[in-house]
HIT domain-containing protein
Amino acid sequence: MSEEKALYKDKEVIVFPDKDMKAKIHLQVVPFRHIQNIFALQKQDVVLIEKMKEIGATLLYENGCRRRDIVLGFHIPPYTSVDHLHMHAAAKVFPRYRRKCFGKAMAPVKKVIQYLNRFGSVKEKYQRRRNPSKRRFRSHDRYDHHRRHRHRHYRRDEEESKKPDFEKRHKHRRRRSGTTKRTNHFS
């Protein structure tokens, strides 16, 4: 990205608008020091991330954004498109991108700072959570799950059809209902 489009620049960080806007205001806060992704972050990087958070939030506030509309976060690998750490600072995210780009694929800055302070790394926390083999149902398996569930009902119906039908099992009920005379008490 050319430095002409930069909204903010100092020795450690540069801020520019995202080329593929997914919100009314969508900025990228990028550090000059090369860090591959959030898994490469260490405890000493907390100061840099807090600075990135502060700069991104102040630029959004200056553009008249409310606190509840702001999203600050890093994409979690394998959802990263560039092998260089960058923070997304967005406000008023378009509805169709809310879940796709800013949902489960993104780690909020607040949580990243919290995990770095507590554990010294983010890798274990997010890799464990994002492991597809440990998820209960993947999105493409949902249909299969419902189909399997439906087949259980079919099997149950087949088993019931092998049993003698209701009338044969309950002859006494059929006889009683046939002998009882129904009268209308309100006539």
